[in-house]
Design brief:
- The complex is a heterodimer.
- Chain A folds into three domains: 75 residues, Ubiquitin-like (UB roll) (Roll); 118 residues, Alpha-Beta Plaits, CATH 3.30.70.20; 363 residues, Rossmann fold.
- By secondary structure, chain A is of the alpha/beta class.
- In chain A, α8 packs across α10 and α8 packs across α14.
- Chain A has 19 helices and 17 strands.
- Chain A is 33% helix and 14% strand.
- Chain B is α+β, with helices and mostly antiparallel strands.
- Chain B has two domains: 58 residues, no CATH class; 77 residues, 3-Layer(aba) Sandwich (Glutaredoxin), CATH 3.40.30.
- Chain B has six helices and four strands; from the N terminus they run ααααβαβββα.
- In chain B, β1, α5 and β2 form a beta-alpha-beta unit.
- The chains are: A alpha/beta, B alpha+beta.
- Chains A and B meet through β7 of A and α4 of B.
Chain lengths: 585, 165
């Protein structure tokens, strides 16, 4: 047991574990100290000076995020001296900030703005030289506006610590310091994977997704177009937060109602093509095991992960499943099967996906993602959960007052297996539910593969399964966060990985924590495991569903019976599978 | 605008230079904090730190090029621009400045097509602004490769530059 330290914060006695910082100790005592650059686990710089406190006996104010407690310490977190210092700090940051709050996408959800108003700052107290930076709009997924950047380096930490990529960093020095890439290249020219984790940690509007709301709205208003929308599993447990609901609230019914009110012609569930992915990927996996194909096979649902392996491990693309992601399968099925069924020209169909993800905006532009023909993208627009919320608000829809509605047929019914795709380990669990029954030719009783659940970065399990009468210990892993994917890839490189099947999700915790999900301020992130709360709602919902296996979905059965014939058929390969590109760094 | 000055001069590293760099990297990759001395030594070999060299160093240390670039743009002793074959320095010390050195800088910027701190694309000339060179009696002063030209007016620049072409 570690030693306990006694100290006094704002006159209150408290006892905390040795090594605790003043910031954490205060929080335990129910006292909030504002922070700006600090981000639990990844960014402890003591750089922004917003979290300063007075410590009795210390000559100057100290940064509480990096200052450890000591026996008998006396701390004051809200003295006039402290408040004045914080106020000046924010005012100085504002002196080199564009202050265009009225047209900023983060207004109302900006940590700088919140602190400025909370501390009673005069935003124009210090007028002086200003840096002016051009926007980086080089990528289809992200916009960087350094004129709003406060150099907290949270994005830099996310890129390096979560993802081990580090394509962004602090360049130059002093007043000219700015976040950028090697040799000042635009983001599109470096090995950025588009995961958007940098956006999720940005306290201001310096990083944001490339907004496609106007394009979608124009399509809806174009009478010559049939506009179809589909929603990813995780969106329904994130979207509600944008409307003031508790973290992880499942708002599926209201989300569907809102999408119908927005004027989409068809509102479908991408969970359907998550189920379809399981049939295709499961079949591919069984084929590889039986026929001595490339193992371990690695999932291909996460476009951030795909871009990562293409950049950083281009010699290992054969390990990837050839399956398109559920988003891309969704677009492909809409523009082939559904178009034929309804007698529509795929050229007149606009497919919009709602995703917890920014990398999906890149994925839709990839080659080999046009099942209905040359020049017809499977997916036309990919909106993030945040964009959908803005779209709903803009249209005056009272989200919380909506009555629940159900997805449209024929792509409205999906299994719990499809739903849990949103959490790390979910694809693996969904696949195991199907693969087990196919190989064992008997019913799987316990559907919960708990070993691959939870927010741990690398999870492993061994599932004994009979393959053609021989017992095989199928070794699987579920990995999230690219820093963890790197660990696994290095193992594969060295020939030390004896896994059969690996699930990789680019974002830590999986899609529930995707780069397109509602942004929770550091104050919340530092104290609540947001991804865990959102994921637990997916598992809870799955637990209460009757349909929990992809291969039992009536929609999937219909798709194979009337169109694709069987999983892995030639037609399925043409429409539902893809190829990859060796990019290098 | 806080733009970082980047050279347009193509990289012309030799095999000998590459071998020298590799030897240094082999020595330093496992030394804690070895990245800084590696950059210093690389600059000694090449005279500056081109992208090719920074990429090589990043790969050797197993860090991203951006992490190296962040360091090379932080410390002023590192330069991303090669020196020209001819280094043109304009003294901006007090005496030279009041005698019109500013006009000489403008003239050189105009004639060479580069800003102070840069090198022409053909690698022939680089332009730097310096502090007092110690011959204030000759102000304003320009030196080229150590040759001193005093009491200059912008009209004389063409003739002087021509000697070095």
């Amino acid at each position: 047991m570690s030693k306990m330290i006694n100290l006094k914060i704002n006159g209150q006695n408290i006892s905390v574990k040795e090594g605790t910082t003043v910031l954490e100790a205060a929080r335990q005592a129910g006292i909030r100290i504002p922070t700006l650059c600090y981000l639990k686990d990844i960014n402890k710089l003591g750089a922004c000076r917003v979290c300063v406190v007075e410590v009795k006996g210390a000559r100057s104010l100290v940064a509480s995020c990096v200052y450890p407690v000591s026996e008998g310490m006396e701390v004051i977190t809200n003295s006039p001296r402290v408040l004045e210092s914080r106020k000046k700090t924010i005012e100085l940051l504002l002196s080199d900030h564009d202050k265009k709050c009225l047209s900023c996408v983060r207004s109302g959800n900006c940590e700088l703005q919140t602190l400025s108003t909370e501390l009673g700052c005069d935003a124009s107290n210090f007028e002086g030289e200003k840096n002016e930076y051009p926007l980086d709009e080089s990528t289809p997924y992200l916009v960087r506006d350094n004129n709003k950047c406060i150099m907290c380096r949270r994005c830099v930490a996310a890129c390096k610590e979560y993802q081990s990529i580090a394509v962004i960093g602090a360049n130059a020095r002093g007043f000219r310091t700015h976040v950028g890439s090697e040799f000042s290249k635009p983001l599109m020219e470096v090995a950025c994977v588009g995961c958007g984790q940098c956006i999720n940690v940005c306290p201001t509007g310096a990083l944001r997704e490339r907004d496609e709301i106007d394009e979608v709205y124009a399509a809806i208003n174009d009478p010559s177009k049939v506009v179809i929308v589909g929603t990813a599993p995780s969106v329904r447990v994130g979207l509600g937060e944008e409307f003031g609901n508790p973290i992880g609230t499942n708002v599926e019914g209201k989300m569907v109602a809102a999408l119908k009110k927005l004027g989409f012609d068809w509102v479908f569930d991408v969970n359907v093509t998550a189920d379809l992915t399981i049939l295709e990927e499961g079949t591919e996996f069984i084929g590889r095991v039986l026929n001595g194909g490339k193992l371990p096979m690695i999932t291909s649902c996460s476009p951030g992960w795909i871009k990562y392996i293409e950049h950083y491990y281009p010699d290992y693309l054969a390990h990837l499943s050839s399956c398109k992601s559920p988003q891309q399968m969704f677009g492909a099925v809409c523009k082939t099967y559904f178009a034929e069924k309804m007698g529509l020209d795929p050229k007149n169909i606009v497919v919009v996906s709602i995703m917890p993800c920014t990398a999906k905006k890149f994925e839709k532009t990839r080659p080999y993602q046009n099942a209905a023909g040359e020049g017809i993208q499977d997916i036309d627009y990919a909106l993030t959960s945040r964009e959908l919320a803005r779209f709903i608000k803009r249209q005056g829809i009272m989200f919380n007052e909506l009555k629940d509605e159900a997805f449209d047929a024929p792509m409205g019914i999906a299994s719990g297996a499809g739903l849990i795709f949103g959490a790390t380990g979910g694809v693996m669990e969904a696949a195991l539910r199907t693969v087990y029954e196919v190989l064992e030719e008997k019913e799987l009783k316990d559907l919960d593969f708990k070993a691959v659940r939870g927010t741990k970065g690398i999870k492993e399990a061994v599932i004994p399964v009979h393959v053609k009468g021989n017992l095989v210990n199928v070794k699987v892993a579920a990995v999230s966060g690219l820093a963890n994917a790197k660990v696994i890839m290095e193992k594969i490189k060295k020939g030390e990985a004896d896994y059969h099947f690996i699930e990789v999700m680019a974002c830590p915790g999986g899609c529930v924590n995707g780069g397109g999900q509602p942004i929770q301020p550091a104050d919340v992130r530092n104290n609540v495991e947001v991804r865990k709360v959102r994921a637990s709602m997916l598992y809870k919902t799955d637990k209460n569903m009757k349909l929990r296996k992809s291969h039992e979905s009536p929609v999937v059965k219909e798709l194979y019976d009337t169109y694709f014939v069987k999983p892995g058929s030639e037609k399925a390969h043409h429409i539902l599978h893809t190829k990859y590109v060796a990019r290098g760094k | 605008m806080a733009k970082i000055k980047l050279t347009k001069v193509p990289f012309k590293g030799t095999k000998e230079q590459a071998a020298e760099l590799d030897a240094i990297l082999a020595e330093l990759v496992d030394v804690p904090g070895g990245l800084m001395p590696a950059l210093q030594k690389a600059q000694k070999i090449y005279g500056y730190l081109p992208i090719e060299v920074q990429t090589r160093i990043a790969d050797a240390f197993g860090v991203s090029v951006e992490e190296v670039f962040g360091i090379s743009t932080f410390y002023s002793l590192f330069t991303l621009n090669p020196k020209g074959k001819n280094e043109v320095s304009v003294c901006l010390g007090t005496a030279c400045y009041v005698k019109g050195a500013g006009d000489l800088v403008d003239g050189l910027v105009d004639k060479l097509g580069i800003k102070a701190g840069e090198t022409t694309a053909d690698g022939e000339f680089s332009l730097v602004e310096t502090r007092c060179v110690g011959c204030c009696g000759l102000a304003p002063v320009v030196t080229i490769n150590g040759d001193v030209y005093g009491k200059l007016v912008p009209e004389q620049l063409d003739e002087i530059l021509a000697k070095y072409k």
